[in-house]
Design goal:
Organism: Dacryopinax primogenitus (strain DJM 731) (Brown rot fungus)
Strand order of the largest sheet: 4-12-11-10-7-5-6
CATH topology of the largest domain: Aspartate Aminotransferase, domain 2
Number of domains: 3
Cofactor: pyridoxal 5'-phosphate
Pfam families: Aminotran_3
Number of strands: 17
Oligomer: single chain
Number of helices: 15
InterPro entries: Aminotrans_3, Class-III_PLP-dep_AT, PyrdxlP-dep_Trfase, PyrdxlP-dep_Trfase_major, PyrdxlP-dep_Trfase_small
Shape: globular
Largest sheet: 7 strands, mixed
Family: Belongs to the class-III pyridoxal-phosphate-dependent aminotransferase family.
Distance between the termini: 55 Å
Structural class: alpha/beta
């Protein structure tokens, strides 16, 4: 295989490929300026700089600056940037066949991936797969399946849930109005219900899980009695951990309550594991923490560690209600992405990823809880929550995007817009971390093979950023 330097020598000096490989700080700056001028304004970025390369938990920005990446590409490169086994498997497949169109014939990686996935599923009934390119496409496919299987039209979703930005999925999304701003009328037949998150119920972080679950399940009964009759309701769709809604895990008792309602009325339970799947929460799939069986499960992001691939999985008798030709797509189940996903299944087991998540999770949560009680932070942190390495930190900070800010019984003790200010300071200090939700929340989603030293470094940067924001007021 040619090295980067050898490849440069082999290319014609004025070729486009040569210029692309011959990266300089000046060239990166020029590309950034060109991108700002010609890439659609609707695509928001954390920083207007060029990300040149990545390795493990680190990315290299323009100018050679190395940054610790605690965003993992928004929970996608779970096993680190450019994992040699995963990227190597994709490169090898790219030299065999790239586009083995799934509506023409079986692709070997497609079928072998299904073979690898079946034993990993949270329930043995989940044995039939269809691969898409993105999480949003898989969500749409799940709704299409649910409507076909039940002969019903309506879908119940969660307040705070995020499922995508396409026309159907932004109709299902309830995390931020920006995703559907100016796009009405949206897809009909969608009914939101509250999720057991203290903000949504006008409570405080001290509210009991039992209290919140009981209230939400009661509201579900009202929806079925007042808005969408059970005989008109095809599915209940929810994330096992609210992602864009604030990194709030669904309590097991809530999931069990939804399962009982679905079983009683013949409604399908669709679990969105796009972000929470693939060992992110300490189990292969987050739903395993509850023991609840989904009728349909959606997975993406970490499935192929950065290569575009998503999946819906269900039981065969449900999948078989769709006639041949009902499902399809030009790039679905791409052979290169499937080869990468096969390698992912091997890496999870061979490199003891779940064991590392368990160890690092204890360290992360413990350190954040210690910061929460630190006098130096003056009550900055309101809540630390999550599972595995999917952790949310919420601040006692007013946010002007939420009407009325916080409930009347919560007194903000932190400066306004604390989350975005802290995230910006982290980037200045050498760590990429993201905010989430309409509330003041930062999400920790480091790579799942992050080392103890890398985690300590990230926590050091985060603590310094928090302390600076508190001092600045």
């Amino acid at each position: 295989m040619l090295t980067h330097r050898a490849l440069l020598r082999a290319l014609p000096k004025r070729s486009i490929a040569h210029r692309a490989l011959h990266t300089t700080p000046q060239r990166s700056s020029q590309l950034a300026d060109f991108g700002k001028a010609h890439i659609a304004h609707g695509l928001k970025r954390v920083t207007d700089t060029v990300m040149e390369s990545g390795s493990g938990a680190w990315v290299t920005m323009e100018g050679g600056r190395k940054v610790l990446d605690f965003s993992s590409g928004i929970g996608v490169v779970n096993f680190g940037h450019c994992h040699p086994k995963i990227s190597g498997a994709a490169a090898e497949q790219a030299m065999k066949i790239v586009h083995a169109q799934s509506s023409i014939a079986f692709s070997r990686p497609y079928v072998e991936l299904v073979e690898r996935l079946i034993p990993l599923m949270p329930h043995p009934s989940l044995d039939t797969f269809f691969f898409w390119n993105s999480g949003a496409e898989a969500v749409e496919a799940s709704i299409k399946l649910a409507r076909m299987a039940t002969k019903r039209q309506n879908v119940i979703v969660m307040q705070g849930g995020f499922h995508g930005r396409t026309y159907a999925t932004m109709s299902l999304t309830r995390s931020k109005t920006i995703y559907s701003l100016g796009q009405g009328p949206l897809m009909p037949g969608v009914f939101p219900m509250p999720f057991p998150y203290w903000h949504q119920l006008g409570l405080t972080p001290e509210a009991t899980e039992e209290e919140m679950v009981r209230s939400c399940l009661y509201q579900l009964q009202l929806i079925l009695a007042q808005q969408s009759a059970p005989s008109d309701t095809a599915a209940i769709l929810l994330e096992s951990v609210l992602g864009e809604g604030g990194y709030v895990p669904a309590p097991p008792s809530f999931l069990r309550g939804l399962r009982e309602v679905c079983d009683k009325h013949g409604i399908l339970l669709i679990i969105d594991e796009v972000q929470a799947g693939w060992a992110r929460t300490g189990k292969m799939f987050c739903i395993e923490h509850s023991g609840v069986k989904p009728d349909v499960m959606i997975t993406a992001k970490g499935l192929a560690n950065g290569f575009p691939l998503s999946a819906i999985v269900t039981r065969k008798e449900l999948a078989d209600v769709q006639a041949p030709g009902t499902m399809g797509g030009t790039y679905n189940g791409n052979a290169v992405s499937c080869a990468a996903a096969i390698a992912v299944t091997k890496v999870v087991q061979e490199e003891k990823v779940l064991e590392n998540v368990a160890a690092r999770s204890v360290e992360l949560i413990s350190a954040l809880k210690e910061m929460q009680s630190s006098p130096a932070l003056n009550g900055l942190i309101a809540d630390v929550r999550g599972l595995g390495l999917m952790i949310g930190v919420e601040f006692n900070s007013p946010n002007p995007s939420v009407a009325g800010d916080l409930p009347a019984n919560i007194v903000p003790s932190a400066p306004a817009n604390a989350a975005s200010r802290i995230a910006n300071k982290c980037l200045e200090k050498g760590m990429l971390i993201l905010t989430t939700s309409v509330y003041e929340v930062i999400r920790f989603i480091p790579t799942l093979n992050v080392t103890e030293d890398e985690l300590k470094e990230g926590l050091r940067i985060f603590k310094e950023a928090c302390e600076e924001v508190v001092r600045e007021g």
